[in-house]
Structures are given as C-alpha cells and as structure tokens.
Amino acid sequence: MHTKEYTKEIETFQDKMELALLGYKAGLWEWDTKDNSVTVSSQWKKMLGYENDELPDTLPNWEEFVHPDDIEDIKYSLFNSIKNRKEKGQRVHRERHKDGHWIWVLSRALFIYRDDGSVHIIGLHTDISDQKELELSYYQQAQIIDQVHDIIVSVDLDGHITSWNRGAKKILGYTKNEVLQKDVSILYPKEGTTYKNIKKALSILKHNKEFHLETVLRKKDDQTIFVDLSLSVLRDEHGILCGFVGYAQDITKRKDIEAQLKKQRINLDYLAHHDILTGLPNRLMFQETLKKVLAKSKRFGKKFAVFFIDLDYFKDINDSFGHEVGDKVLQKVTNLFLDRLRVEDTLARLGGDEFAILIENISDTRGVAVLAHKLLDIFCEPIEVEQHHFYLSCSIGISIFPDDATDEKTLLKHADAAMYTSKEKGRGGYNFYEHHITSNMMRRVVFETQLKDALKSQELVVYFQTQTDTHTNDLIGLEALVRWQHPTLGLIAPHEFLHIAEVTGMIVAIDRYVLNYALSQYSLWQAQGLEPGVLAFNIARQHLIQNDFLEYIETLLKKYNINGECIEFELTEAIIMEKPQDLEPILQGISTLGIQITIDNFGTAYSSLLYLKKLPISKLKIDRSFIQKISSEDSDEGIVTKSTIELAKNFNLHVLAEGVETQEQKEILNRYGCHVVQGYIYTKPMSSQELKELLLQKKS
Predict the structure, then answer these.
(1) Backbone phi, then psi, for 566, in 5-degree steps?
(2) Please, are residues 211 and 233 in contact by the beta-carbon 8 Å criterion?
(3) How far is CA 89 from the centre of its chain?
(4) CA 353 to chain centre
(5) What is residue 171's DSSP assignment?
(6) Total of domains in the chain
(7) What is the tens place of the pLDDT at every residue in 220-262?
C-alpha cells in the first residue's frame, strides 16, 4: 500500500472511530515509532477533562499523563508486543485528569507493522474508573467478609447456601465445598423448631429489612452452639430481592458466663457500691443514699447533716512510708470513725483520704457539733501502724438540710466548701457551712489580684521576732516574718494570704522580697555594731526547688556582705518529708554556704528518723500547737514535747520552742532541757525600727 493511500485509510478509520466514540469516556491515540510521535484525539483530551484547544494533538511527552507506578509496565508491554509481532494488545493503567486526580483507563491497541521495520500503533483508551472502583470495593468487601472471625453465610431465595466465609468454617467445621448449594437446613438441629423459626424469619424478611434472634446451630460434629443471629436481605443491582445473608456470633461462652453472673450479681452489686479497701459505701452509694434520705426528709419535714472529712497531710504518709502503710492507716481511721457513729448513720469513703458522713433526724446543731468533736478527738492519740506512730488530724465541713441546701449535690458541695474553710483556719477543726463562705471564696479571688499589686507597690512589710536563751535572757536570734499592710483593710496576718501566694506561685517573689529586706537591715545593724544573732527565714518549697535558688542566695550573701553562718532557713516538716530524696542535694548546697537548716513545725508531720540523720539539719523547732497545750508534764502534749527534745539530743540537734507565752510553759520547757524559745513571753513581732531600738538598749 502506498504511503498516500495508507495515510488516507488511517484518517478515514480515525474519523469513523471518533464518530463512534462520541459521547463515551473514550478516545483514540496513536504512536508511530518511525518519528516517535504520539497523537491523541479530541475525545481523548475530553476524557482527561481538557478542551480540544488546551492540548496539542501531538504530545511531546505522553509519560507526564501516566501514573509513575505504571510507566515501566506500559513500556514493557508495548515493546514486548512489538518484539513478538502481536496484532493486538490490552492492559489497564492510570492517567492523570486535568483536576489532578487519577482515572483508570482500559487501553486496547492495534499494531500495524511496516516493511521498513517501523510500527504504527492505533489505540483506544476507555475510562473505566467507576468499574474499577466498584471492582476494588467488591474485592475489599469480599476480603473483609472472608476474614471476619464470626459466621457470615448467604443463601438464595430457595435456601441454598451461596457463600461461606472462614469464620463459618472455623466455628462450624464445614469447608466451603461441603456446603455450597446445600440447603441451609444442614446447619440446624434435626429435632426441634429452630429450622422452622428460620424459615419463618426468611418469610418475614421479604417484607422487612432485617431480623434478629438468638438460636442454636449444629456443627459438623453434631455439637450445638448458641449464636446471636442477624438476618438481612440481599438485592441485585436493580434492587430485586435475590437472597439473604446471615451474620452469627458464637455466644455459647457468653451464655455460660451469664449463668455464672446470675450467681455473682449480689457480689458485683456490692463491689459497685462499696470501697474495696475499707468496705465502706463509695461515692456512688453515698450519693444514692443521700438522695433517698433527702426525699424522705422532705416528706416528713426532718433535718439531717452531711459531713465532709479530709485527713490532713495524709499524702505525706504515702510518700514517706508507701501506700501499703497508708492503706492500713485508712483502715484504722475507718474503724475509729465507725466506733463514734450510730448504726443508722452512714459513713462513706469518697476516695483517697476523703470521707463523708450522713446523720439523719437531727433536732439541732448541738448534737452535730458534739459528734464533730468526737471525730476530732480520735486524733489526740497517735495512729499506730507497723510500729509507726502517726499524729494525724482531720478537717471537717458540715452542711445541714434544709438550712444550707435542698438538693444532694449542693449539700455535698457546701460541706466540701466548709471543710476547706477548716483547712484554711489551720486544719484539725470543723466548720458549719455559712453563706459567707461562698463570698469568702470570691474574696480570695479578689485577694489574688490585690496581692500581685501589693508586691509591686511594696505593701508587704517585714517584722522580726526575737529568739531568747531562757538561762541568760540573752537575744540569740531573730525570725523574719512577713505582713501585708493593706491600704484599706490594715495589717493582714500571713495565714490570710500566704496560702493564696502558694497556690498562685507568688510565694517565690514574696520569699525573695523578705530575704532582700531583712538581709539589708541585718547588714545595717552589723555595721552599727549591733548584735542581732542568727537571722532565720521561712522558705517555701516552691522557692527551694527553683533552679537558681542556691545561686540567688549566694548572690545575696555577697551583696550584703553577710556570712552564711549568720543565717538560718526554716523548712516545715511537711516540706522536708515531701520527696526528701529530691531535696537532699539542695539542702547539702545550703549547708555548704554555711547556712543552718531548721525543721519548723516539728511534730505535725511524720519525719523519718533516717532522713533526720541523713540530711544536714541542725535544729528542730517545736510547733506552737504543742506548746500552747502544755498544762503539765503528764499531759499528752507534754509527753510529745519531752520526747521531741530527747530525740533532738540523741541526734545532736538544737531545739527551739515557738509560741511560748506563759511562765508555766517556759518552766516546763526548761525542765525538759529546752532553753531557747520564741514567743510573746519575751517579744511580739516588731518592725525593723522597733527591733533596732531593742538592740540598742541591750547594747547599752
């Protein structure tokens, strides 16, 4: 065939194909190996989303339209077909649409071989994305169904099995070949009504979309199993009913467990409503009981009280001695609480170290107050666990129905708020809820803002209280104490704002303000030839654990030219015992600077004797709560104080008693061997000017 005739025939063929493919997602393409040109039709461009004038008819690089993962396979297929002089070829690959997504294309090709060895390939590309997506979807669904561990079986309208997944084989024992086209009745016991019920269900399914029941299936070995069976209809692509599909879960074990659970229901109910450690009702049961008592009290016009109790510093026991010891303490406290309550009273453990008590049918608050005192008195004696003696206390909040609230949630919330008021007042006490407690909470929020301003405007002032040797009545030291000179409220004591400072993190700035002011005064007194003795500071844990704490203290000592041996840091016992291993390197660093370390409020927490010996501690400061209650040497507080002084001597530690106010207290302490005291018996906290005058008097 002449080239001219060949070309005309090809063009005629193309025109016919374009006309035939008009309206379909298909297009022609040609590749002539003679000049390596690739030509595409307007329909091919349209299939990929392009208008005819957006692409040239001859593509300089056809590979840019083909998915990178498919290019090598296409080349291999084409060259392999040419090598073997095939007349036709077919394959599927992906091409890039104008908007960037990939479409699946079925490529059919006709190979025309010329005498000169070149090849003219005419091809047809058809968009089969919808078909491919459907095939992939069917394939994935088929895999999923086959891999499901439960039974999935389909049947036709005559009840013959048409599909059988691996779950069915594993559970029922039949292979696919053993059941396909068999009647589904082989899966049901020969005796009984099970199969009749299934037949009935299939009949119902023709009108409904699905049917659910628990039934019995027969395995290949004739054993039966309980299954949870769901039946649904199958429809073809035209929506015509063509069969049914059943999904069944083997619930034989569940049935056995249900039988056992019936026997254990009482026990489970108990576990759901009781605290495992103490055996007390838990929060859930307490709330349910409170709700019932509330309804009854409303009906009969009776009052009742809700106690919210939190053990003070209980966390220190867990941290220092472990949760096993802490659990035993909770069990012991529970028994002590129960001993003080009536049978009809409800004691519950809400969680951690929080307890609640419900006292029904009260006539007035006097009886409630008496009970609160009884509960507090429990902790006058140490709690003994595994040869340890723990001096605990608790904070109690009380709300009354209907005086304080008429719903259970608010009653419990108000009792909780009253408990926090007890903690703020120094712990170890009780408080009835009062409406001003809510306003006090608002007042605290306002206080936070004002305290920040107080730091900026220098409303904080530093007072000093002397420490005295009772043998000589000589002043041997001072403690720096912070006060807040509020512009409208006057002088505010530290216990009213320091807890806010600790919660908000402002305590670090306050500590540093006190240190700067007191050290500058101390430096002036020394320059004036006065002898103030050792200067003691209270240091908060938040300040102590600052990364720059030691560097900051060393800078202050150099700034004011003060020897570290003239300074003493007082750390509360609770601070020392909160992860003492973490504080050990910091305390060692303080000691290296020559600064002495005192345990403040000693006797209120639970110091480990091991750490008393291990840490660089030089002094114990007996808490004022013990001193104020010393009435005789035989009193509980007297015994504790005497034991503390003896303990200090055994560890070669100095002792200081704070809060000494009477001559009797001073004399008892002297007999015990404590000769350094701090308190109103000698001086009240005073300003720097007042202290300077006192030092001048002593010098003269």
Answers:
(1) -85, -5
(2) no
(3) 63
(4) 19
(5) H
(6) 4
(7) 998 889 998 888 888 877 888 888 888 888 888 888 888 788 7
